[in-house]
What we know:
Chain A is α+β, with helices and mostly antiparallel strands.
Amino acid sequence: MRKNCLRKGKKHRLASIEASDSIVRHLNGMGFVNGVEFEIISDYNPYIIELKGSRLALSAELLQCFRVG
Amino acid sequence: MKMIALAGNPNAGKTTVFNGLTGTRQHVGNYPGVTVEIKKGVIKKTDFTLVDLPGIYSLTPYSEEERVARNMLWKENPDLIINVVDSSNLERNLYLTLQLMEFGIPVVLNLNMQDLALAKGWKIDTKKLSQTMRLPVVETVGHQNKGFDELINSVKVALGASKRISQTAHFSDSVNRALDILEKKLSKENASGASRWLALKLLEGDQDIEQEIANTEIKQTARELVTDLEKEYNKEIETLLAEQRYKYIEGIFLQCVSSKLSFKKPLSSKIDAIVLNKYAGIPIFLIMMYLVFQLTFTVGEPMMGWVESAFGWLGDLIASFWPEGSESLLKSLLVDGIIGGVGGVLVFLPNILLLFLAISILEDSGYMARAAFIMDRLMNKIGLHGKSFIPMLIGFGCSVPAIMATRTLDNRRDRLVTMLVVPLMSCGARLPIYALIIPAFFPSKWHAPMLWLIYIIGILLAIISAKLMRVTIFKGETVPFMMELPPYHFPSLKGTLIHMWDRGKLYLQKAGTLILGISILLWALSTFPMLSRERIEEYDAQRETIVQSELADSLQAIQLSALDNLQAEESVEYSAAGRLGKFIEPVIAPMGFDWRIGTSLVGAFAAKEVFVSTLGVVYSVGDADEESESLRSKLKKNYDPLIAFCIMLFSLISAPCMATIAVTKRESNSWKWAMFQLIGLTLLAYFITVAVYQIGRLAGL
């Protein structure tokens, strides 16, 4: 995901994560799986994401590995 | 005796459940070879051992905690797992539940934080959930102490009917067919009953498991099956398995959870809007840290005084068993060596208890995750995690609690780097050295800037060292920042106090073992060899002459005190510590130091502030402190401002006190890192001080 694609208050659907296997597995464990919807709450690095009712903080560097549909 | 493992995601309220199930019947230790803590307890009204596993997201390890948790389940084979789940985050938490079910050990699902789920407008049909997932489900509200009896009863029933069955029905037929093939092959070689789970891990490409499987034919079959599955579904295997798990969970969630639409913004979101605000976040964080600092050091100060007085009283009591003025080696060992040494370290116990009280409140309330979030941008620039800032800040008070505070860091590399640079934050014990030297050598208008300069040098060196370590000995992929921001809640008093006591107990145990040994060693170094009998008799004869003289009492007292100081100076000079000071004189001379400074530096290893009192002894001014004018004038006669600055610089950078080294050893679980800290910082101090002194001399200072 390009940084400029991220809009505060906008919902995104995750298409894939392009990162190392261990990071992908960890993100899967945290709830980031293909097809899941998430919302950007804060776009000030680290970003705050709302996912299935809980809040997660992710670095911008990590968010760049996200491909959204 | 049955063993039960307590597993759950981070922030699911596992510790509260652990405390509720075990009460005070618990102890903390470390897993062998790693820094991860293991907490064990006995479940109330039973003889079942409960093992609290670190918070994890999955059984495929990402962090050291996840590896420890996975290995504990795999290698120690508990009889049952209690899976603590945050009910208000059910969907995400059930991902681990499914993996535990795949593992095969019977699971009791504990829906914790029911109050938060209700506040979200959720109603979870536990009966339906239990039927659908085919496992016992028990509701609890940990911080209100609700539901623990029901949980214990459920555990008892489940243990009676326990049978190891790996559940993989949530995967597609193709995946299950692949698992069947691998399981069949693995069960011939593996008698643990975990063959299906091992088959699943082989499909997932878990490297630890692959290493454990010696049969190359099985591994080849697994690779072929993975290729087939990836071709069939047109996606990578880990994505495929994760998607199938979440799809199953989504179905369960829709069946078992009914929700009323709530348009109310959750309280946590409202608090976050202020606490994590772009502009207000850092000032709020600084205020919080200031409060932690105040609680630890300002509130702790009178308590430190009480501990100090208690040890002083104990020392006097022991000394009173000998006639007044008599010299006894045993008395000196007990009073100066053991009571003085251990007391000097235990004096920090109130700080440590208060610090962990504050940290526990911050962690349990949910603020600690926010603090790490706020500081991450800054700390990331020096290759550290946001959470590293808190130990570094505490380091300005005392390195011992600061190093213990690195426990809040999840990543071992970040934790070790933080631990190693914390002593560069100038601790409170160094302040007496600066307070003695700065007024003696620098004009009053330079006092504050000079003190500021010393602190800034420490901070800059910490930043440079951390950055250097991250690109050399601790190089590797930077761990991207990703963490959960748990909802805010009031910490429970019981949980907070247990947390505080756990840490305090570890510190007490250390004081009773390692520090006791080092105290005796340092005492021996500054006591032996003693002055010859003839020399002591000469001093006694001189005392007798003064007492017999016709001088006024006040003059006699002055002369006797001067004689005592002279004898103390000669004793130190004659002792191993004094000889060590003289021995190292050629080495420390390039820094402008003589044997007196060298001897004081040896003493400072016990505690930095001891430097001042040792210097007082070697300069025959008796019990000196940082306000001692007589010591200042002696220093002024013997040294110049450049040497004075070098003393402060060396004290700032060099090896921290023995308590810090001991605590680094304990927290890193390795003497290697403790020695690295000791030798590394001393060498760094040496080279920097030599450079400053030599350049200063060349510049004519």
